[in-house]
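Re: the 133-residue chain
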Amino acid sequence: MFGYVAGLPAFLAYFATGLGALAAFAALYSALTPQHELTLIRTGNAAAVVAFLGAILGFSLPLSSAAANSVSLVDFLIWAVVGGIFQAVAFAVACFSMKGLPRRITDGEIAAGLWSAGISLGVGMLNAACMTY
């Protein structure tokens, strides 16, 4: 019977590490972007919610792929950092392709939030697919 839970310690280690990486990404992303999504979300800004959830999901996709394909927790963390870097690049691309994106999100423009979220998700999906080795 205990053979069924033999993998539980590894699951808990990866899950806790993944949650920590996700929390760290959320805090860093909100602090480093000009619009500071967490502050805007607390005021009820729907565009910030959409953009931030897109970034969180865009990071979670490669994070899940890294968890499934990594050979150790250190390997998992290295790929988590790579995923975070690519989400920062995705935000830069979104800003480059839509003038005034941070201001527009701050102003509550849903289209700007959707644009940012869509690019984050697209980059996250590609990033996750490329992490299968």
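The CA atoms of residues 13 and 60 lie 17 Å apart.
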